[in-house]
Design goal:
Butyryl-CoA Dehydrogenase, subunit A, domain 2; alpha+beta
Length: about 675
């Protein structure tokens, strides 16, 4: 059913009114959000180049079958790769930095709405090969992956084992006679399960397996394995491979399974920058076992960054909708107001903007720490690894939880319209919630952080140095002091409760050990307290990072009006976080009812301050309509026309009478049953 578009060429007047009333320049926010004017210009140039000729209805993939969605994802991903390769030649001939940095960027989400089956290749595989393979190995096959001459994925998770890597069952046995490894998945639970692109898109993969020499286990190592023929793409002998089926989201990513039966690869296909196997079977350990998992650390940093993108995209959709939707008069005799004027609606919307900003700042810090740690590792220095690992686990877990829960709140804030697939909030939700379990299950990651905090507390007791992000633990045995209510005071309250919670968890652990429990039993039984301490540590870190970044902005930005916008978001984030964890704070620091109620007053006041700028802040995130892919969140705000036009495009509406009427419904009604 085609015809003239219903969508006006003008911007909805309510949305335009919001933009006209903003207290700051949107361009200032966009420049800050994207890392400076130069980076913002580059981002826009790339988007113009990549997205200018998109098909208008590419986002309507949800009407297609699983098979057709996959075929669309291949077509769109390869088309994007071609454009990106051309861009590489124009802007950075001979370099390789544009490929991995941009191919999975949110800049391109509009070009690949069904998902990118080659995303893992450029987020994880290229990184892993650079970090884990020797220079000779990278020359031999690493560059082929980076140049997209072959396609590859990262096969770690198994059907029966995920985050607990030491439990992986896939075996790689060394055969001295042939100088080869023999790879096997001995049970069905050992099958690799979940890698993006493994199903039908990759012809190589990094297989994470247990190394055995003379049946003696040497720990988890990485092996570069060919799984399909480069010319025919047929699975090679001993390879059982395919797609795991349709999922809640990431429809076109082609997540796969892999079984191996006596698959032989040369010894030189084990990645040997760190651990090594010599031809005579001599095994050389890695300088530190954590290096094997360092690629996972990067991917967790990436999850935290992406979480901020998911939640700010959802906030943009919900806030634009709330500025246009009118309902429920506040005063009975007045017209229906924009629903964004209801303070309860503001409480659903504005904290998610602040959360998205907080995670972007925290993930930027984490990424910079990753770069620093990587450089130190290259120089043989591994001291920062435990802190880096703990922070990556922490931010991955908290950001995925908060983005999932936040997007659901934003969907509910859009009423029934938010339930429509065309709103795209459901797609954002399933993208966010998937990250709660991939790259490490969140509970397991928080337990790892809890154990890290126990080690840190032992350092407090013994007077040993603490990592920068745990230095506040040394204050746990001191008195909190006076409650002032300042931002620094609010951060201190979170840190103080995290430190005291860590001390309490350590005391519980120690008591269990004294009662005769083994170290592992005691840790298991103290698990709830480990997680509570870990979460508070994370909340304190994110709040402290937000505050420090704002202080830096104050010192360096000349725009008072823009600074005020970030100040309001900081105030909202800190006050809301402290109120949310008030129960934990009150366990260790007494507050009066007046002090607590003053925080509630501050919360309500800052919502009022953010209200005039909410739409402009979301404009500052600078998401294109094709990236948001939402009938509710378009820049022009013509939500009803877009909703109606999307409904008209439903396959069910392409003919006036469906076949089922004549075949089933009419005969039934005429049968006089």
């Amino acid at each position: 059913m085609s015809g003239k578009s219903l969508i006006p060429a003008t911007v909805n007047p309510d949305l335009q009114k919001e933009r006209n009333a903003a207290s700051f320049k949107v361009e200032d926010f966009a420049s800050w959000w994207h890392g400076g004017a130069e980076k913002l210009k580059f981002k826009r140039d790339v988007e113009n180049y990549m997205l200018q000729d998109l098909k208008e209805d590419s986002h309507l993939f949800y009407y297609k079958s699983h098979k057709d969605i996959y075929e669309q994802s291949i077509m769109e991903s390869i088309e994007a790769a071609k454009k990106l390769r051309k861009l590489q030649e124009e802007r950075n001939p001979g370099g390789d930095d544009i490929w991995p940095n941009l191919y999975m960027s949110e800049y391109f989400w509009g070009a690949m709405p069904t998902g990118n089956p080659f995303g893992v290749q450029f987020v994880m595989v290229v990184k892993a090969l650079k970090q884990q393979s020797t220079d000779e190995q990278y020359e031999e096959f690493g560059k082929r992956v980076a140049n997209f001459e072959i396609s590859a994925t990262y096969a770690q998770t198994e059907l029966g084992h995920g985050t607990f890597l030491r439990g992986l069952e896939t075996r790689a046995d060394y055969d001295r006679k042939t100088d080869e490894f023999i790879l096997n998945t001995p049970t069905i639970s050992a099958y690799k399960w979940w890698p993006g692109g493994l199903g039908h898109s990759s012809n190589y993969c990094i297989v994470v397996a247990q190394l055995y020499i003379d049946n003696d286990p040497k720990g988890v190592q990485m092996f570069f394995v060919q799984v399909r023929d480069e010319e025919t793409h047929m699975p090679l002998p001993g390879i059982d491979i395919g797609d795991i089926g349709k999922k809640m989201g990431f429809y076109g990513v082609n997540n796969g399974f892999l079984g191996l039966k006596n698959v032989r690869i040369p010894r030189t296909r084990m990645l040997m920058r760190n651990a090594k196997v010599h031809p005579d079977g001599t095994f050389v350990k890695s300088p530190t076992s954590v290096l094997t998992y360092f690629t996972m650390v990067y991917s967790r940093c990436f999850v935290a960054f992406t979480a901020s993108t998911f939640i700010t995209m959802a906030a943009t959709i919900a806030i634009r909708y709330s500025a246009v939707r009118r309902q429920s008069p506040i005063n009975p005799n007045e017209p229906e107001p924009q629903i964004i004027d209801h303070v309860t609606q503001q409480m659903k919307l504005f904290p998610e903007i602040a959360t998205g900003v907080a995670y972007r700042l925290a993930s930027n810090y984490l990424m910079s720490l990753f770069v620093l740690t990587s450089k130190e590792i290259e120089g043989g220095e591994y001291g920062r690894l435990p802190e880096m690992h703990a922070l990556a686990c922490l931010l991955k877990a908290l950001s995925s939880y908060d983005s999932t829960n936040g997007i659901e709140r934003l969907r509910l804030a859009c009423g029934g319209h938010g339930y429509l697939t065309s709103a795209n909030l459901g797609n954002l939700f399933v993208g966010a919630t998937a990250s709660c379990t991939y790259e490490g299950e969140n509970t397991v990651l928080l337990l790892q952080v809890g154990r890290y905090l126990m080690k840190s507390w032992r350092n407090v007791i013994s007077g040993k140095p603490l990592a920068p992000t745990t230095a506040y633990l040394a204050e746990a045995n001191k008195d909190f002091g006076n409650w002032m209510g300042s931002w620094e005071n609010l951060v201190k309250a979170l840190q103080f409760s995290a430190a005291r919670k860590t001390r309490t968890a350590y005391e519980s652990l120690s008591q269990r050990l004294k009662s005769g429990q083994t170290e592992h039993e005691a840790a298991n039984n103290t698990g709830i307290e480990f997680i509570q301490a870990a979460e508070l540590h994370g909340r304190a870190f994110i709040a402290d990072t937000f505050l420090k970044q704002f202080r830096s902005l104050q010192a360096n930005s000349g725009s008072v009006s823009f600074n005020k916008v970030i100040e309001n978001l900081l105030e909202l984030f800190l006050v809301q976080t402290v109120l949310k964890f008030m129960g934990d704070i009150l366990m260790f620091k007494g507050l009066t009812p007046i002090e607590i109620s003053s925080l509630q007053t501050r919360l309500e006041e800052v919502l009022t301050k953010i209200r005039p700028d909410a739409v402009a802040i979301c404009d500052g995130f600078d998401y294109r309509d094709c990236t948001l892919s939402s009938t509710l969140g378009s820049y022009d705000g013509n939500i009803y026309e877009r909703l109606f036009e999307a409904a008209k495009k439903s396959p069910l509406n392409q003919q006036p009478v469906p076949k089922s009427f004549h075949e089933h419904l009419k005969p039934f009604m005429k049968s006089n049953l």
